[in-house]
Specification:
mainly alpha, 3-stranded antiparallel beta sheet, 13 helices, 3 strands, about 70% helix
């Protein structure tokens, strides 16, 4: 049986011994039971203090329950940084002034210029189509693509304009991040990391599927028509105005690649910004959980622990306010634009399109709904994480504490009664309630469009 004095020599990584593990703490001993291969192993300890009891329990929980690598802070922002690499935005902690950094700057500004050019010629095409009384369906198909590109433009400029502030935020969160296996197990870092990986990778797959469906379906359609009908009818992925005849050999290939590049950049601009926003909120929620845990398990009259908890709490509140100042304008544009985009895409999906176009716009609709839901879900998660602080302080061991300690806890509870909220320039709170309002607004626009389109369609058929 391992002795107490061997705890310092326990290795950081130990082989897993099975999931069936229970532990109990009595007044004078710690009992840990492990079930493995039908056999019951019991470890009993009689430590001299409550602190040693907790240390023994946590060490043996890690030793017998699971073998995990330490979660690195960078793992929370790894997925958005992969997409930042694709568009030339510097990673967190990446050195500046190197040749690699200069090449990434060149990549970013060329991607930015190409996307801006796509946005301009999309608007020109839309204006010309509206002046020529073009098909209503064609206009409503073009409008969400313009909105998508414009939204990506706003988001990536939010990142670029606040690059130094975001780097400072990440640096502070990195310093506060739990870096020992005991602390990571205690505060649930593994669960947070698992959630971030599942959500970010799933959303990335959805967005990449969407953009490459739009980018490559015209090419697949051209190849299919060539083999079935023997004709090569050139198509482009998006409606854009050009001053030259893009059907000509050589010009078509360049134009097709230029549109694919612009579509991909628009998707990555949107995706990387949203993922970084969600990752920072998740890290803030982790810190609020840490404060709640420390207040809940703080011993009576432990003033050092109370001061440290208050320091962390103040830092997290400051970071939350900084996050709102950075992303608040883009969130307002996102909420306003998403209402219109969801309406138009939903209208396209119900307008009797071909199966291929129907699949594209249904995927577009799902991606738009998921994108707005993620922002609202994590905004709501921040509200819930910050709202638990006063309850956690009340659940702590304050009854046996001194009056001064109790008054200090009371001040913490009063400060945290108002939860942290992210807003869209104070017009709307980023929460699940806002998501329902966006859907309601989109549905109102959708019914209005259907009411306008159907009588016009009937009269044109007559």
């Amino acid at each position: 049986m391992p002795e107490l004095n061997t705890l310092k020599t326990l290795p950081q990584r130990l082989p897993p011994l099975g999931p069936r593990l229970t532990g109990t703490t009595h007044r004078t001993e710690v009992v840990i039971r492990r079930y493995r291969g039908g056999a019951l192993n019991v470890f009993k300890f009689r430590p001299k203090s409550t602190i040693k009891k907790k240390v023994i329990q946590e060490y043996f929980f890690l030793w017998m329950h699971k073998s995990v690598d330490l979660v690195r802070f960078e793992s929370f922002i790894r997925v958005p940084e992969i997409f930042f690499d694709m568009i030339g935005v510097a990673r967190y902690g990446e050195p500046r002034g190197t040749w690699r950094a200069r090449l990434k700057q060149l990549l970013f500004w060329s991607s930015y210029a190409n996307t801006a050019f796509c946005l301009v010629i999309e608007h020109i095409f839309f204006i010309q189509a509206a002046d020529s009384s073009a098909n209503f369906l064609q206009l409503t198909a073009l409008a969400p693509c313009i909105g998508f590109t414009a939204l990506s433009f706003v988001k990536i400029m939010t990142i670029k304009a606040n690059e130094a502030k975001l780097t400072g935020m990440l640096h502070r969160l990195d310093e506060m991040f739990p870096k020992s296996p005991i602390l990571q197990e205690r505060y649930g870092v593994y669960q947070y990391n698992r959630e971030s990986q599942v959500v970010m990778k799933s959303f990335s797959v959805l967005y990449m599927t969407l953009i490459w469906m739009f980018n490559l379906l015209p090419l697949a359609s051209m190849v299919n028509r060539y083999y079935t009908e023997g004709t090569w009818l050139k198509e482009l992925p998006y409606f854009m105005w050009y001053w030259y005849d893009w059907h000509q050999p050589g010009l078509f290939e360049v134009t097709f690649l230029h549109q694919n590049w612009g579509g991909f950049d628009s998707a990555v601009f949107n995706l990387s910004t949203d993922l970084l926003f969600c990752a920072i909120i998740l890290l803030l929620c982790l810190q609020f959980d840490i404060v709640a845990y420390r207040l809940r398990h703080m011993l009576p009259n432990d003033h050092e622990e109370l001061i440290e908890s208050i320091r962390i709490h103040q830092s997290v509140i400051e970071l939350s306010n900084e996050l709102e100042r950075i992303f608040s304008p883009s969130l307002l544009v996102n909420f306003l634009g998403s209402s219109v985009i969801i309406c138009l895409v939903g209208f396209q999906a119900t307008a009797g399109l071909t199966p291929i176009d129907l699949f594209k716009f249904v995927l577009f609709l799902v991606s738009s709904l998921v994108q707005v839901f993620l922002l609202c879900y994590y905004g709501n998660k921040l509200i819930e994480a910050s709202a638990q602080i006063p309850y956690s302080a009340f659940e702590g061991h304050w009854i046996d504490a001194s009056v001064s300690h109790q008054k200090s806890l009371m001040l913490v509870m009063l400060r945290s009664i108002k939860p942290q909220k992210l807003t869209a320039l104070k017009f709307s709170i980023v929460s699940l309630a806002s998501y329902s309002k966006i859907l309601s607004t989109s549905f109102s626009y959708f019914t209005l469009l259907k009411a306008i389109y159907e009588p016009t369609n009937v009269s044109s058929q007559k």
